Amino acid sequence: MAETSNETAKGAATEAGGPKRQPSAGGARGRRKVREGIVASTAMDKTAVVVVTERVRHARYAKTVQRTKRLYAHDEQNDVRVGDRVRVAETRPLSKLKRWRVEKVLERAR
User: Regarding the domain delimited by 31-107, which CATH topology (the fold level of the hierarchy) does it fall under?
Assistant: First the structure.
């Protein structure tokens, strides 16, 4: 009974710890999400609450609706103020709710 090359390759991959994972075609694995929003609160130490507004089209009624999310972002220098427009980037979990960091202040509040 001779093994075919397909069976041999399959068996070798299983013994070596399973098949190798190929990187996705889109290359999205290494990218971090980036959002822009307005700072709503700076009451916590080294944390800013950033309100991000997203405009999406309603699936059934095709009307443009605004969806709002409040992101907890890490602000190392405590230099952002309420009303500032900032860019936040996704990062590893820093606390129970904080998964974003303030990357840049785009516009200061007046």
Answer: OB fold (Dihydrolipoamide Acetyltransferase, E2P) (2.40.50)
